[in-house]
């Protein structure tokens, strides 16, 4: 910028007032907006738009709304809400169709046993897990923006839903129910699970209407990973009674994990040797197969479907050996063919289930959005978080009409879909075809499937969640604060419950953000030799501090929580104490002699916002600087950040708004970066970003 035409050196101390050039520094004249337009082009049209009143801009936008209801506007809305209309015309049929077909069939094969297993985790009959593996997948294929996302049953949501269902529809204390009573209990629990899906879907649609997709950012990565890892431990412990063949009631509420462990240890002598053997053999097959799929994912054309192989082997073994009648092994039983009649969940239960629906909706959206973002970044495409809210909200809402429980994207099947070569949402259609064939024709083949095998599938599917703890050493090295968030969330989830652990994790994560704003340091800037750049003095001893001038940068918001830290920091730098003016703090060499400060420039470029308390703090600082004979200059101010909007009748406008003092100033021209001007008319009467107080 020093080579600009007609650039001149600022006048010395004898050529200008102390206010404009207090130190007589020989720097170039500040580049004003008017001077910039004169040198580099005419921006009158843009300036007029910027200076246009806000109400006028709103009126102009309101007049444009009828045009959005035209044919082209409706087509744009349809393209935004139905993503297949955008990607299907560009689909590479020869290159992608085979990969989507193989990946979809592979994921569908896994959905069948996993859906039935997670249904037991939700405390509903296994067939409803198949419904939840069909309807949500089909709906997300039409509305979702994640090309590599696989939706359906998810262990964490099934655990949260199962705990809510057990509390809403508890099992009678006796436990010895007849077949008719057991069917009535299952019907009530299915209705409660469907109502939870309806409530969570309605909440997500409400968030979509308010465009609250940004809420997913409040569930940070440490919170989500700690939540899923802690929930995986809950899943493991909750499946122990099924592994051992113990008919124990499900524990809910706080300390449920420890209550379940105590009940299992107490009833361990009554465990079933047959179901214990089936569980051991199932885990001995499932765990090595999953390890092989991970280690040889690049060499295998498609992952080995260990779950479906185990389901077929166990069903054949139980049928040929009559394990259900000879050793009282619990089996799945008859899977009804076809689909259930659509019906609206009991709306009278909605007020009771809203407390449980909110955390379910937040976890479903957070996990789905984070998974979609990971694969979108990996394969270089974008997702729309608000469209994801719509997709998952409609998916849960409509599927609840067919007795489905809450659903979301799943970690295991998403990774499986990518490893199998999936490219687009079209893989979901092939997955639905597999599940549909089971619902219509292949259901009777799973009649003799032992429930202990489904419990083993639940446990083996938690592998990825357990291995998330391997990231803790790296997290400790990168950020101790994120490590603390991870540990606090995990401990809260394990000891208390998934719902309370999620709330504690989010609150603790927000508290760490607030604490970080309290630890921000105000940096004193110095001039780098031979340049016009100002850098923090503590970075190098080669930086020169202009005598009598103190340039401070405050890179944090100024609000009621940081005003005290802001006041103390500036008192140290400027030497403003309780008893009067003191020696200012120096960030330079230890032997540097602190000179009295005559001018202070406060760089507000890092000050993102200021509330009423923060703006009043600046007013008080200006008053103290004036009493001490110090000129205070604000640089790079946001036009709205330092306006208090104070309506106190005891205050004058000058006391309420630190910017109003510029009206009493004959002009402002300082050597700090920012849009400055020679007097009030330099920028055409528009607000400037550098004010003198």
From TrEMBL:
STAS domain span: 539-635
Coiled coil: none
InterPro entries: SLC26A/SulP_dom (IPR011547), SLC26A/SulP_fam (IPR001902), STAS_dom (IPR002645), STAS_dom_sf (IPR036513)
UniProt KW keywords: Membrane, Transmembrane, Transmembrane helix
Cited NCBIfam families: sulP
Region (Disordered): 641-660
Compositional bias (Basic and acidic residues): 648-657
UniProt membrane topology term: Multi-pass membrane protein
Superkingdom as given in the UniProt entry: Eukaryota
Official protein name in the record: Solute carrier family 26 member 10 isoform X3
TM ranges: 93-112, 119-143, 190-214, 358-377, 428-449, 483-511
Cellular component annotations (GO), alphabetically ordered: membrane
Claim: Membrane is one of the keywords in the record: yes
Main localization category: membrane
Annotated compartments: Membrane
GO biological process terms on file: transmembrane transport
């Amino acid at each position: 910028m020093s080579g600009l035409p007609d650039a001149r050196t600022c006048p010395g101390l004898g050529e200008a007032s102390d206010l404009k050039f207090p130190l007589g520094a020989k720097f170039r004249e500040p580049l004003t907006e008017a001077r910039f337009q004169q040198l580099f082009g005419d921006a009158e049209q843009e300036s007029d738009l910027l200076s246009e009143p806000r109400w006028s801009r709103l009126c102009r936008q309101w007049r444009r709304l009828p045009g959005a209801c035209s044919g082209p506007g409706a087509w744009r809305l349809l393209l935004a809400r139905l993503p297949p209309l955008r990607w299907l015309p560009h689909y590479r049929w020869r290159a992608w169709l085979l990969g989507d077909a193989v990946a979809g069939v592979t994921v569908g094969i896994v959905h069948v046993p996993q859906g039935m297993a997670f249904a037991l985790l939700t405390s509903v009959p296994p067939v409803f897990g198949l419904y939840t593996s069909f309807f949500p997948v089909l709906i997300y294929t039409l509305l979702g923006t994640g090309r590599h996302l696989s939706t359906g049953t998810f262990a964490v949501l099934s655990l949260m839903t199962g705990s809510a269902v057990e509390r809403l529809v508890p099992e009678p204390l006796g436990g010895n129910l007849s077949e008719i009573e057991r069917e009535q209990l299952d019907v009530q629990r299915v209705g409660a699970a469907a109502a939870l899906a309806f409530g969570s879907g309605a909440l997500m649609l409400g968030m979509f209407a308010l465009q609250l997709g940004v809420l997913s950012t409040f569930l940070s990565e440490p919170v989500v990973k700690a939540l899923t890892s802690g929930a995986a431990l809950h899943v493991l412990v909750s499946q122990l009674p099924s592994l051992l063949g113990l008919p124990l009631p499900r524990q809910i509420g706080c300390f449920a994990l420890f209550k379940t462990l105590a009940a299992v240890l107490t009833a361990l002598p009554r465990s079933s040797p047959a179901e214990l053997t089936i569980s051991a053999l199932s885990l001995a097959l499932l765990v090595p197969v999953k390890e092989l799929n991970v280690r040889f994912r690049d060499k295998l054309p498609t992952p080995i479907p260990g779950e479906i192989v185990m389901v077929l082997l166990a069903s054949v073994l139980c049928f040929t050996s009559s394990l259900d009648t000879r050793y009282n092994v619990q089996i799945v039983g008859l899977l009804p063919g076809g689909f259930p009649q659509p019906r609206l969940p009991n709306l009278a239960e909605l007020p009771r289930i809203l407390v449980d629906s909110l955390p379910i909706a937040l976890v479903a959206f957070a996990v789905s959005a984070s998974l979609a973002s990971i694969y979108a970044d990996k394969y270089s495409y974008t997702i729309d978080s608000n469209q994801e809210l719509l997709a998952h909200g409609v998916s849960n809402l409509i599927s609840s009409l067919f007795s489905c429980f809450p659903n979301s994207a799943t970690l295991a099947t998403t990774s499986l879909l990518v490893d199998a070569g999936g490219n687009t949402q079209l893989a979901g259609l092939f997955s639905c075809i597999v599940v549909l064939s089971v619902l219509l024709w292949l259901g009777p083949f799973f009649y003799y499937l032992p429930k202990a095998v489904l419990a083993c599938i639940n446990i083996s599917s938690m592998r990825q969640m357990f291995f998330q703890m391997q990231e803790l050493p790296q997290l400790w090295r990168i950020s101790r604060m994120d490590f603390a968030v991870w540990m606090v969330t995990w401990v809260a989830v394990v000891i208390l419950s998934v719902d309370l652990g999620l709330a504690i994790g989010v609150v603790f994560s927000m508290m760490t953000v607030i604490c970080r704003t309290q630890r921000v340091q105000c940096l004193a800037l110095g001039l780098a030799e031979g340049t016009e750049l100002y850098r923090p003095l503590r970075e190098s001893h080669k930086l020169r501090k202009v005598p009598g001038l103190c340039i401070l940068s405050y890179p944090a918001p100024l609000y009621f929580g940081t005003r005290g830290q802001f006041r103390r920091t500036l008192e140290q730098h400027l030497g403003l104490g309780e008893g009067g003016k003191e020696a200012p703090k120096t960030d330079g060499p230890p032997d540097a002699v602190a000179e009295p400060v005559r001018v202070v420039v406060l760089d507000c470029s890092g000050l993102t916002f200021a509330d009423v308390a923060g703006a009043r703090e600046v007013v008080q600082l200006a008053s103290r600087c004036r009493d001490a004979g110090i000129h205070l200059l604000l640089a790079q101010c946001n036009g709205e950040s330092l306006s208090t909007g104070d309506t106190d009748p005891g205050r004058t406008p000058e006391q309420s708004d630190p910017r109003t003092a510029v009206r009493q100033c004959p002009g402002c021209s300082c050597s700090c970066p920012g849009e400055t001007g020679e007097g009030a008319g330099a920028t055409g009467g528009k607000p400037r970003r550098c004010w003198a107080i």
